[in-house]
Amino acid sequence: xxxxxxxxxxxxxxxxxxxxxxxxxxxxxxxxxxxxxxxxxxxxxxxxxxxxxxxxxxxxxxxxxxxxxxxxxxxxxxxxxxxxxxxxxxxxxxxxxxxxxxxxxxxxxxxxxxxxxxxxxxxxxxxxxxxxxxxxxxxxxxxxxxxxxxxxxxxxxxxxxxxxxxxxxxxxxxxxxxxxxxxxxxxxxxxxxxxxxxxxxx
Length: 202
Fold this sequence. Notes:
Blueprint: H1 2-13, E1 16-20, E2 31-36, E3 42-48, H2 54-65, H3 78-85, H4 89-100, E4 106-109, E5 113-119, H5 120-127, E6 130-136, E7 142-147, E8 150-153, H6 154-157, E9 162-164, E10 189-190
Antiparallel strand pairs: 1-8, 2-6, 3-5, 3-9, 4-5, 6-7, 9-10
């Protein structure tokens, strides 16, 4: 049944676009690659969507930072900023339906991104890639990360800015914790446009 479902998904979403040829974050002096990851292991990753109304955001920034402006220093919350640049409902709906088509996924909506939790078997099919176990040479701890090409269905790639959480390696000396104070998503696979450093609270 599982293989039949995968086949139906492939037919529905058609040709795929390679968004990464290999995992450029792997450092063999720090991490050792091992066996293929257990397909039942669960991983969480993020799908970032194109932001809209960036000109309006720039104008709002000027209003907030210009002395004499009625809105000077009336700072906005993260949620208010995201509401300005939120992707269109059409884009969000298309990406959400694609994620849901894989079946066993948990999707959290962060306005301009989805945080997705799913078994590696599901994520491998969604992203057209393979996962392996990597062991940190100093601490002995391990993490599952993708190896080789990563791809998306062509019509979904048009709605995705970048993906994080499947290729990057955490700082093992910090016990793999992801702090909200770590403000930049550094490792990412970019789709269809130049990458920009982007603030991310998740």
